[in-house]
Amino acid sequence: MKYTILFDLDGTLIDSTNAILNSFKDALRFLNLDVKEDEKIKDLIGHPLKNMFAMLYPHCFNLIDEFAKIYRECYSKIYLEQTTLLPKADQALHLAYDFADLGIVTTKGGTFTPILLESLGIKKFFKTLITLDDVKNPKPDAEPILLALDKLNKTQENAYMIGDTILDVQASLAANITPIALSCGYGDENELKRYSQIFPNAYEAICHILNIKQI
């Protein structure tokens, strides 16, 4: 039986920090809102966009939809040139592709994500792509992982979720698959270590899974 490996995107396979921060801050300025420090925004990457805004600006609930619309307009102009693969992500996918069925489970929206994967040259590796637009309950709920497994016609057996935030770990545990955390992204390393093995990048995580497979 082939293994199943699901990946988060932001902070796991791609460095989208500049694209997210620049779009976020441009939208805030357009709405005449105080711009939070970069670290406060980065700490929330992994949550759905509207949730990020609500957590940072709890008294501006009436502006959430307008913020999201402006953010996406800004993002559409810069995301391809301001997003790169993280170190060793390409090597990780080449190695994993030989022994596992691969999928993406992300809280990014579905409009730009397939285009981004194609631009980065990695879309070919994945048999399924689950975005925020595909589910009612995003990570940390189990729904997106279970949907990915269903699309792949796979069970939880020999299934892994690789991600950089506690949301990825919580979703994995809720879906009864094995979480593997990465320290190259946006999550708190000490928090991640309490619930999952942690590796510096996706390539090291894949090597770990491959060693398990060979035992």
Describe the fold and architecture.
It is a single chain. The protein is α/β, with parallel strands linked by helices. The protein has helices spanning 17-30, 38-42, 49-56, 64-78, 89-97, 113-119, 143-152, 166-174, 189-193, 202-214, and strands at 3-7, 14-15, 84-85, 100-105, 128-130, 159-163, 178-182, 197-199. A six-stranded parallel sheet has the order 5-4-1-6-7-8, with helices on both faces. Strands 2-3 form a two-stranded antiparallel ribbon. The two termini are 15 Å apart. GO terms for molecular function: hydrolase activity. Pfam families: HAD_2 (PF13419).
List the helices and strands and how they pair.
Elements: E1 3-7, E2 14-15, H1 17-30, H2 38-42, H3 49-56, H4 64-78, E3 84-85, H5 89-97, E4 100-105, H6 113-119, E5 128-130, H7 143-152, E6 159-163, H8 166-174, E7 178-182, H9 189-193, E8 197-199, H10 202-214
Parallel strand pairs: 1-4, 1-6, 4-5, 6-7, 7-8
Antiparallel strand pairs: 2-3
Helix pairs in contact: 1-4, 3-4, 5-10
GO molecular function: hydrolase activity
Catalytic activity: 2-phosphoglycolate + H2O = glycolate + phosphate
Pathway: Organic acid metabolism; glycolate biosynthesis; glycolate from 2-phosphoglycolate: step 1/1
